[in-house]
Amino acid sequence: MNCKEEKLQLSKIEGKQIQITDTIPIDIDIEAFVKPYRDNIQKDLDSVLAYSTSTFSKNDGELNTALGNFMVDAIYSEANPVFKSRTGYDIDMVLLNHGGIRSSLNRGHVSKRTAFQLMPFENSVVVIALKGTQMDSLIDYLRRAKRAHPISKLKLILNKDFEVVDAKIKGEKIKQNKTYYVATSDYLYNGGDNMRFFKPNDSVYYLNYKIRNAIIDKFYKLDTINPVIDDRFIQTK
């Protein structure tokens, strides 16, 4: 006798939220297994790499900040040798976003944990080849944003009406037909913070180098951290 298979259909799904709090008993065996690894990670994160002379915040300037300047300059100094060794070209400028800086750089000892606080995201450095005409769109974005989006190797001067008075890359006027290699994060390259000027482009280079790791590598090389607000992005009165 042939038996027909009974067709089963899902009729209802039920669930409940389980709060994870310190009232849940600790599993002693799991805790004993995890503890050595946790202790080793904590020790590594808290090992002192450098010293910050003051507390630096992303809100301590109008169009450029000491903290933002430090971060983009660190990306330039650490990522440029990587990029040049692979392509033969130099990075022309670096751009990050103001909102991507998630913490202050506090006075005192600086560690790997500091870098994780500043940049908790897994964003990586990418370099985009843009023509001078596209650089106009990048600069227009910055003047319209009126925020301290960190820039390195680009000098931008606005007048009181936020119109561009001068824009130079590495001290030279921007040439319309020249290709410029702009380092940024993969998040911004993909349109984060409405930065839509990176596409289309001549080419994109993925360095497989996290922004946070570039900052850590810079910490290793420094004894004292003392960044300043400068004239790289200013408004004339």
List keywords for this structure.
237 residues; alpha/beta; five-stranded mixed sheet; four-stranded mixed sheet; 6 helices; globular
> What portion of residues is helical?
25-40%
Overall, the morphology is globular
Q: Which parts are unreliable, with pLDDT below 50 for 5 consecutive residues or more?
A: none
Total number of β-strand segments?
A: 12
Order of helices and strands: HEHEEHEHEEEEEHEHEE
User: Hey, roughly how much beta strand do the residues contain?
Assistant: 15-25%
- Strand order across the biggest sheet? 5-2-9-4-10
The overall pLDDT, averaged over residues, is: 92
Note the main sheet: 5 strands, mixed
What radius of gyration results from the CA coordinates? 24 Å
Summed up, the helix count is 6
Query: What is the straight-line distance between the termini?
Result: 95 Å
Secondary-structure-based class equals: alpha/beta
Task: Write a structural description.
This protein has helices at residues 28-46, 66-87, 112-118, 132-145, 186-189, 211-221, and strands at 48-52, 93-95, 108-111, 124-131, 151-152, 154-158, 164-169, 172-173, 179-185, 203-210, 224-225, 233-235. It has 237 residues and is an alpha/beta fold. The longest helix has 22 residues, at 66-87. The mean pLDDT is 92.
